[in-house]
Amino acid sequence: MEAKYVYSFEEGNKDMRYVLGGKGANLAEMTNIGLPVPQGFTISTDACNDYYKNNETISDNIINEIEEKLKELQEKQGKTLGGEINPLLLSVRSGAVFSMPGMMDTILNLGLNDTSVVALANSTQNERFAYDSYRRFIQMFSDVAMGIPKYKFENALDKIKEAKGYTLDTELNVEDLKELVKKYKEIYTKEIKSQFPQDPKEQLMLAIKAVFKSWNNPRAIVYRKLNDIPSDLGTAVNIQSMVFGNMGETSGTGVAFTRNPSTGENKIFGEFLMNAQGEDVVAGIRTPKDISSLKEVMPKAYDEFMKITSILENHYKDMQDIEFTIENEKLYILQTRNGKRTAGASINIAVDLVGEGIINEKEAIMRIEPKQLDQLLHPRFESKSLNEATVIAKGLPASPGAACGKVYFNAEDVVDAKNRGEESILVRLETSPEDIEGMVCAEGILTARGGMTSHAAVVARGMGKCCVAGCSDIKVDEYNKEIRTEDVVIKEGEYISLDGSSGCVYIGKVEKTEVSLTGNFEKLMNWANKYKSLMVRTNADNPRDAKAAIKFGAEGIGLCRTEHMFFDEDRIPAVREMILSKTLEQRLVALERLLPMQQKDFVDIFRVMDGKSVNIRLLDPPLHEFLPHDDETIKSLSESMKVSVSEIKRRIVDLDEFNPMLGHRGCRLAITFPEIYIMQAKAIINGAIEATKEGIKVMPEIMIPLVGEAKELKVIKEDIKETIDNILEKENMKIDYTIGTMIEVPRACLTADEIAKEADFFSFGTNDLTQMTFGYSRDDAGKFLGEYVNRELLEKDPFEVLDQRGVGKLIELGAKLGKSVKPNIKLGICGEHGGEPSSIEFCYKAGLDYVSCSPYRVPIARLSAAQAVIKNEK
Amino acid sequence: MEAKYVYSFEEGNKDMRYVLGGKGANLAEMTNIGLPVPQGFTISTDACNDYYKNNETISDNIINEIEEKLKELQEKQGKTLGGEINPLLLSVRSGAVFSMPGMMDTILNLGLNDTSVVALANSTQNERFAYDSYRRFIQMFSDVAMGIPKYKFENALDKIKEAKGYTLDTELNVEDLKELVKKYKEIYTKEIKSQFPQDPKEQLMLAIKAVFKSWNNPRAIVYRKLNDIPSDLGTAVNIQSMVFGNMGETSGTGVAFTRNPSTGENKIFGEFLMNAQGEDVVAGIRTPKDISSLKEVMPKAYDEFMKITSILENHYKDMQDIEFTIENEKLYILQTRNGKRTAGASINIAVDLVGEGIINEKEAIMRIEPKQLDQLLHPRFESKSLNEATVIAKGLPASPGAACGKVYFNAEDVVDAKNRGEESILVRLETSPEDIEGMVCAEGILTARGGMTSHAAVVARGMGKCCVAGCSDIKVDEYNKEIRTEDVVIKEGEYISLDGSSGCVYIGKVEKTEVSLTGNFEKLMNWANKYKSLMVRTNADNPRDAKAAIKFGAEGIGLCRTEHMFFDEDRIPAVREMILSKTLEQRLVALERLLPMQQKDFVDIFRVMDGKSVNIRLLDPPLHEFLPHDDETIKSLSESMKVSVSEIKRRIVDLDEFNPMLGHRGCRLAITFPEIYIMQAKAIINGAIEATKEGIKVMPEIMIPLVGEAKELKVIKEDIKETIDNILEKENMKIDYTIGTMIEVPRACLTADEIAKEADFFSFGTNDLTQMTFGYSRDDAGKFLGEYVNRELLEKDPFEVLDQRGVGKLIELGAKLGKSVKPNIKLGICGEHGGEPSSIEFCYKAGLDYVSCSPYRVPIARLSAAQAVIKNEK
């Protein structure tokens, strides 16, 4: 069978999104369930890939198929493209497999030329409409298909308006528009060195190519990266007969969500504009009206629309985002798709749909993108601080959350600020796809124009980023880089705070508060616990983090780093004394001073974790990290320690390393200075005894870092066991403790069978394991890693998403070898990846027992762990 | 069956060396082939291990076995241990599985006490002999078994000699000796707080324990490490009835090699002393006579001995090292073993034995320890320089080779010098086992006393280290740290040169010359080529090294590092300019300047390697390695480049890395700066064209370093291929070239199937692979690696000997995955391990095609490669 590249809407269905794109598949589906969809056809994503394969040309067979479908469409519509009597006009839109709002380009009114514009004027009896449509088409086509800058056309328009003294576009009369069409064609000719194409088929082919090309425009590439969309999917092209919302006061256009995308409330949510085309709503030029008011304007169309929204939501079993146009009171549905929503809405909708019997718990769990939870888990403004804060303006609560930052007025400045380590707020009149990178880097987004479905609002919600949109209380002066209100001027670099849930804009920094799991969120998390099999632990080095993690459902500590405890101001002198000791005796004295402090650390953590496992990693970093490097501190250290400055400097130089990552650290320290781990072991067990005596259930796991050879672990374990067992015997106590190791050196994975003989548990330290497996220093890789990801040499930054093909293989091998000698060995992961959804699924499949992540990622990990089980059931 | 721990000589044979030790097994073998061996029995190595297992006690069942065998021995001899009439005297000697000369301790004349000494005097009619034996026994027992310092006894002896005005020990009469025995017993009592043990069985058990203990004395441990002898083998103990070479002028003792251990000449080589015990020969106190003169002194014994040497050599099919004693004209063989020999002798003997039909070629190949070849491959003195040099003394040519260094007078100073990076000569009156570490660290050894079989000579030959022994022309003043001859004084730290083949000692530094493969060495190497299957290539970055390697039989270049070419004084300015370029254009200009220089490098190498493969690795190190770090060079660079100092410094800081090993280097440079590799590719192919036009056969292999992901290699390969193919097309030439990669990052091994699709060859870069697999920075690991090897946490330094359990697993995986997609992919290794015998055997077993090593290691690699095949045939 020959490949098929073009499908009429009647030939498709919703499951064909990989062929027809999301939009095309849904247009087909709606057509087939009898909804009023303007007729048309879809050019498949395969055609797009074919286009790129053929060096950016459309194959003849595809052209033939297009012409055939166009012929069918003309017959169905009884109109001819470019026809002199009843001309067929087309919209040409992209339609990728996964929704990429604002990323791809659209051309409307295609088919207009100097002849058909007259025919359109005749057939609609509306000459102004016809010429308005023609000038819009010329501009859109020139911009989108031919790359002529939009402002050239806008300047021409402004000039006419100025000359005539108009303020609104609607004031332009037919003659003005005819003049404008002439001007626009001149601009085209000047830029392209040829006449504006009068052949509608040429227009069509150029438009299709433009859609294909836009698949690889920089904004699209950024969006795909941001949303993990493979770059080889390609985009489909939807060719649809035009319907017009701008045919006068019985026409209009709008978008609506079947539920509230910000809160999840089960109530239609949307906007419309009378006498307008679709872009007018999303572009935010005119402020649209709430969908509910359509009832009064056009009750019949409204009722029909409401019926259709209900049909669509039930059909797709999810909240829908629907575009519609009313042409002379007749309703058309132009698009439906699963609506983007905030994390909060996402949860509420999923839980509600379960309550309504539409989906089940597992489906609800699968509906939530784990990463999206991030926005629910970040602090909100503290109410006390909020009460004291000064509101300078109020806009639309476009995407919830709390954000503080310095204001910057364009994407580049925000990116620069981010690189300098500053938190910033992107402030724009209105955002456009060019702002995407700035939106990624900003803490929050503030726009002066646009509604709840404006670009800024939709994209920010998708990102889970705080956004206040359409804030007409402020003047945004992008040129002078300042925000002005009646009372205040805020200049570039000054702080503001945004509350995305209330729409309030505050001057200065407003304090944030902690968040917790309640209501539907809690319900969903409980379902997650019901289905997940991986335990979720947390990385926490202090009682505060441990408490926060427990609140989020952490089932233990997977990594308690002890070195952070050493940096404390009270302790660092003793640590330095220990390091600078010349003899074992001196070192023992210094360690003796540290012992009670470490012991207290552990008691405090044991109290918080009562009944839950606490995995404590013994000292890991190279000793030079604890030594000062500035002359002043060295001098004061010299005085307090009564050691000469030169002696200290000599020691610092001695300890310096070429590659500290691969140097004298981790268990290697314990081989040369066994007394350090022995002190830590004492502190742990003394702490455990103290806590146990208070009635607390203590479950310590002692973790030896950086083991690469079983014998290292063996000798260190013997020292620790001896230390602990002596103390327990003396105290006549029994405390169950285990001793295990980080698996973070490639060799540890390769020899995991030998290491397992000595270990009660393995915790895969995927940060270091990634560094060594790739040979990337995390501190240095910035110089090339960005380029690697951009050029797709690597799919992802392997420090964020576990590299399953390389590092993952080592983990699988380590797990397999470990279990081969000790089937019940406890296996976990404690690198950054422990909170990353795809990495968690990998851990589940690799047979690990737990993942450990930062406190705020615990819910993400719980949800991901549940999804891993459900996904792999199929 | 109950374990057996004690074997009479009749019960053993030569194949039981793991049970009886080498000495015991050979004593048993000789006993059973009817040679005159003093009767006795051997306590097995198992008994030694049992001793250590039981917390350093000898089990009762072993004691019972010993007593039983002792009873048998007494019956056979018709004597009783400690008997009052005809007392049995015993020697107690250690006997390890592998010969460890001078390492273990011996006690002679055991069984003497205040009663049996009288009986011995009576039975031998030689009272002086009896008391001399008794005082020797007390001293040896006290020293070896009880740890009383020897000098205490020597002082007592010296006092008597002084009081009586004697110069020689032989001047002591019976009364003197009786007095001395009394004194010695007093010393014993004072030190040990108990009487000297009179019970011979107590003496025996203490002596056996002393042997067991000596297995773990520090010298023994050092020797084992040096010679790769496992520490869990244990030592056997040989208990043998005494025979006396010191019974007067019809008695004597000696050692002989069946061939010359220094040259391999097929002629008996040995020394003896009349009226002496064995230690007197090896200790170097009296200067022994050549074995040939025994013919005149005792023709009958000499003839019998010659017959026996021939029997033994034919029996063992190898050159033997034999100890003998003549007691009252009766010859006894006390020991035989395969004699230690120089590398040169080793080759000559092996080749001669093939010529004599005693062994075959393969056996000859297996006879040579590849590492030993090292001594043949090091430069000798240049004859011109030698003619001009001043000989200050001449000693015995104890171990061949040429050595230059600063003189030091004790082992510690030599070790310190080595640590400072100095070459040194260890100068001693005579060496003892305490000097082992100094001998390891010295370039050569010079002693004033001792013969060809003295400690210094034997150990130096074993190590392949140059040694001039018994150089009585010089006075060695260890106290004032100087060497004095009639004419000159050489102080500590001044240079001398030693010729171990002539025995000459030169003042100052004598130039050395290259060596080559000729004669038997060449013959053996040709046999090696006949049996080996691995190709042996060399690592060479310049024509000089390439030439040297070809002379040694290199079959190609396995690693030509291009960065070394960049450090050249002429080039570094252009390199720095390239690095400091702000734009691509500037960088291209600088690279254009480097191009002709690189091209010349390659032409020169291609000329030398005519017809052989040349594997060229493109730029590998991080760019900051090429930048200056001292202010002066920065300033002059600033002037020559017309770039401000601060700009240069900023760039240096920019390029600085936390972990350069894991930083922006290797192919990562080519991802960010593709133009660098493109320039190198041009230089290679232009060079190849130039050489081809000269009629040279060029086989370039282009190697991309540090690949961790197939896509890296893919994009770089495309650039290079395009560059080269364009040039070849333009020149209308055809040159076969291949493009492959280093496999040196763990992830490359893990994803080798994907990488193989893009690679014509893999070259395992085991230096970096070891660093990353272990997580050891080679530059920093010195801080702990020594301790790891000493404490046996690692068997070997993994940078010297390939870690087969860890790194080896990755190599096997990489080779397997690579072949799974490309069965004929060429596989090699180019790390330091390519010249290390056990690593080469691993490479053979892992299915690699070639190894590559430094030029001087090529013969070692060829031999190892042949041995790998032969070993694995079995």
What does this molecule look like?
- Two copies of one chain form a homodimer.
- Chain A contains 36 helices and 33 strands.
- Chain A is of the alpha/beta class and about 850 residues long.
- Among the domains of chain A are: about 240 residues, ATP-grasp fold, A domain (Dna Ligase, domain 1); about 140 residues, 3-Layer(bba) Sandwich (Glucose Oxidase, domain 1), CATH 3.50.30; about 180 residues, Phosphoenolpyruvate-binding domains (TIM Barrel, Alpha-Beta Barrel), CATH 3.20.20.60.
- Chain A starts with 5 loop residues before the first strand and ends with a helix.
Backbone CA Rg of chain A: 32 Å
Q: Work out the helicity level of chain A.
A: 40-55%
Q: Sum up the overall morphology of chain A in one term.
A: elongated
Q: Give the helix/strand class of chain A.
A: alpha/beta
- CATH topology of the domain at 6-243 in chain A, by name, is Dna Ligase, domain 1
Any idea of the CATH class of the domain at 6-243 in chain A? Alpha Beta
In the sheet with the most strands of chain A, the strands line up as 14-24-23-16-17-18-19-15
